[in-house]
Amino acid sequence: MNPEEPVKQPVDNPVQNNQPPTPTPSPATPSAPEVQVDTEHIEENQLNTKLFKAGQTGKFIAIIIATVASVFLMFNYVAGITVVDGKSMRPTLKTGDVLIVWKLPKTIAAVTGSQYLPSRSHVVIVTEPNDPKVQLVKRVIALPNEKVDVKNGKTFVYTKDNPSGFSPDDKPYGAKLPKLEIPFQVSVDAGQVFVMGDNRNSGGSIDSRSSVGAIPSKHIVGEVWLRIYPFSRFRTL
Questions:
Q1: Strand pairing partners for 137?
Q2: Domain holding 188: CATH number?
Q3: What is the pTM of this model?
Q4: What are 104-143's pLDDT values in tens digits?
């Protein structure tokens, strides 16, 4: 051994042939789970939604039809509204007064096949026999098989129960009526009523004293029940 020659130290883990280190494999990326679409239930839910919407639309249409039908039946067979036009019922009623007409008794009579007759002294709506398109508002003075006699400025009615006669206007409304100027007599036939306007002045009312004559019961629309306008004169009649 040459004392001048350095001693070579052993080298741990020498890199041989300059080869790169073997890479460590990375963990495998998990694949996404497979999603299954339940098309059967989706289609079923869509169908149920359409059926629900169709059902709601059907209900809405049914409500509209029922409402229209109810209004039609109400105003044609139970009660109606009419507006006064003219002076024939002054001072009780004036032009523009809005009235509720009670038709139910007339409807019941028609259904049962009986004759409808309003109460004496009540205000009624009638269709003019000579022109059914025209409606008149009048007061019932006499009923079938009675006699009417206008004399001394007043109206008298003769019946089997009152052969001496009585005044149908002996009520609160009668205190405001003008005196009748023209004498008049007539007998009321079966199935008819004699009506007059409260404006008893000559030419003040077209009623049973004139060409209209006695009114057949079938031409009676109903009894006036209530004046709803003007509000300051709201009251039953």
A1: 125
A2: 2.10.109.10
A3: 0.73
A4: 999 999 999 999 999 999 999 999 988 888 999 999 999 9
Q: Using one digit for the tens of pLDDT, what is the confidence trace for 69-80?
A: 888 888 889 999
Set 31, 50, 70, 88: catalytic member: 88
Domain that holds residue 191: 75-236
Distance (Å, whole) CA 118 – CA 126: 11
Count of alpha carbons within 13 angstroms of residue 141, beta-carbon side: 31
Q: Does the residue 183 lie in any domain? A: yes
Instruction: Give me the residues paired with residue 193 across strands.
Output: 215
Residue at 61 is within a domain: no
Structure tokens at 201: 């002045």
- Smallest CA-to-CA distance from 194 within 149, 127, 140 is with 140
User: Which residue in 106, 138, 208, 217 is the catalytic one?
Assistant: 138
Residue 138 known to be catalytic: yes
Return the C-alpha torsion angle 172, 173, 178, 181, nearest 10.
-100
